[in-house]
Write a structure and sequence with these properties.
The chain is of the alpha/beta class. 36% of the residues lie in helices and 17% in strands. Helix 4 links the parallel strand 4 and strand 5. Helix 5 packs antiparallel against helix 6.
Length: 250
């Protein structure tokens, strides 16, 4: 099943110089939540690819036909396409996009990674058990997790429900990513919101502890989970730009 892309949820690309940047959005979100960051980087001369992950930016029913394999496949394809057109590629990911960024960094020679409130660790077993019980009981969705934004008057254009089978697929896939965090050697920047109601802080803690490459962590003091459109948006944009310039050379 494929439905029309919701207005504002379209993928985005920009042709610039020899450094490419792949930007990846989060679970039940879409490109709109990271498009300002992508456009900011494009204005600085980077070549940008911001794909719309399968099942996102259309409908919850559409998303329910997709899984971790679809999202990782699309992210890896987008990386390979960008790498074929540029000298080096940095990967930037928000939330699940951060987990996908780790997945790519475990499989490709990426120039750098910027993690923004990344999901890189599966939930505790009790939560997984509860999720399985809900699915076994026939429940297909629960309340939405999107739009965790502190900035007044700003909301994320995310789905109004969370598909449970998709969440289970995500957590299974993230478990494999978590186990392989030690294989990441690219220089990394971790941007962590001090208050995040979607992804727990130990995701960032374990990322710092496990990756083998150099990693720098910066705390965001005035944003919730979707920091790319929150009060710290200018900080996220400038830190991401500067880090890529510092670490990735043609």
């Amino acid at each position: 099943m494929t439905t029309a892309i919701l207005p504002g949820c379209e993928p985005y690309e920009a042709t610039g110089g020899d450094i490419g940047v792949l930007v990846l959005h989060g679970f039940t979100g879409n490109p709109s939540s990271v498009r300002p960051l992508a456009e900011f980087l494009a204005a600085d001369g980077f070549t940008i690819s911001l794909p719309r992950l399968p099942g996102h930016g259309t409908s919850v029913a559409d998303m329910m036909t997709t899984s971790w394999a679809d999202w990782t496949g699309a992210a890896l394809d987008a990386y390979d396409d960008l790498a074929a057109r540029t000298a080096r590629v940095a990967v930037v990911g928000l939330s699940m996009g951060g987990g996908l960024s780790a997945y790519i960094a475990q499989r490709r020679d990426v120039g750098a990674v910027v993690f923004i409130n990344p999901l890189v660790k599966p939930p505790v077993p009790e939560m997984i058990d509860g999720l399985n019980q809900l699915i076994e009981a026939g429940l297909t969705t629960i309340d939405a997790i999107g739009s965790d934004v502190k900035r007044e008057g700003v909301s994320e254009l995310a789905y109004d429900a969370t598909p449970l089978a998709c969440a289970k697929s995500l957590f299974d896939g993230i478990g494999e990513v978590y186990d392989a965090l030690g294989s990441i050697v690219a220089p990394s920047l971790l941007l962590s919101s001090r208050e995040d109601h979607v992804v727990t802080a130990d995701n960032g803690d374990d990322l710092v502890a496990r990756v083998r490459g150099p990693i720098e962590r910066v705390w965001l003091e005035n944003s919730f989970h979707v920091a790319t459109i929150d009060n710290d948006q200018p900080v996220v944009e400038s830190l991401t730009r500067d880090f890529i310039h510092k670490t990735v050379a043609p």
